[in-house]
User: Which sequence fits this backbone?
């Protein structure tokens, strides 16, 4: 059973609409969809909303992407959670924009935020929802690409993806990961 949804991203206005912050975007949309009704509070190096009606924490680590593990380790310790009880949501360069992928466990795939979590909690056995953002045309320009906003023509797809990711998460909460995987793993557009 998932007890914490952890959306990865970077804090600060300058990062709000960037590709690297789709985890934060999903967290905000889930909080709104589930009608959690409260503002984020600062705890465990994160901004957290406690959705009491759903027995769910919605978490946005404030340690910056590459140090996400610090916040996640603190969250697990303070709330007595197991790695299997969290669902981490983050951007994935290796999936095309318009794709979401739910997995029960796995490697970091080169994602530094996920690598930080794995190193901090000493396991890669935690559920994750990867949101495809695609790769830049110039493969050497990955940092600028993930830290840049979505192009105007991508925003329609992004809205569909965020909606689909939110639906996926609600299915995980209702039915569990095993049943939700089949419904979640698809190309949206």
Assistant:
């Amino acid at each position: 059973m998932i007890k914490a949804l952890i959306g990865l991203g970077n804090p600060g206005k300058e990062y709000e609409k960037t590709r690297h912050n789709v985890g934060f975007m999903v967290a905000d949309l889930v909080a709104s969809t589930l009608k959690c009704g409260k503002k984020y509070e600062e705890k465990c190096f994160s901004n957290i909303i406690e959705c009491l009606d759903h027995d769910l924490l919605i978490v946005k680590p404030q340690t910056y992407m590459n140090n996400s593990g610090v916040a996640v380790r603190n969250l697990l310790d303070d709330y007595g959670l197991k790695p299997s009880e969290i669902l981490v949501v983050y951007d994935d360069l290796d999936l095309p924009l318009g794709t979401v992928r739910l997995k029960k466990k796995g490697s970091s795939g080169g994602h530094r935020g996920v690598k930080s979590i794995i190193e901090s909690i000493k396991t890669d056995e935690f559920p994750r929802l990867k949101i495809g953002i695609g790769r830049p045309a110039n493969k050497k320009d990955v940092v600028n690409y993930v830290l840049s906003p979505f192009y105007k023509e991508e925003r329609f797809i992004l809205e569909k993806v965020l909606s689909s990711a939110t639906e996926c998460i609600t299915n995980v909460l209702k039915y569990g990961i095993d049943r939700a995987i089949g419904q979640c793993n698809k190309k949206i557009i």
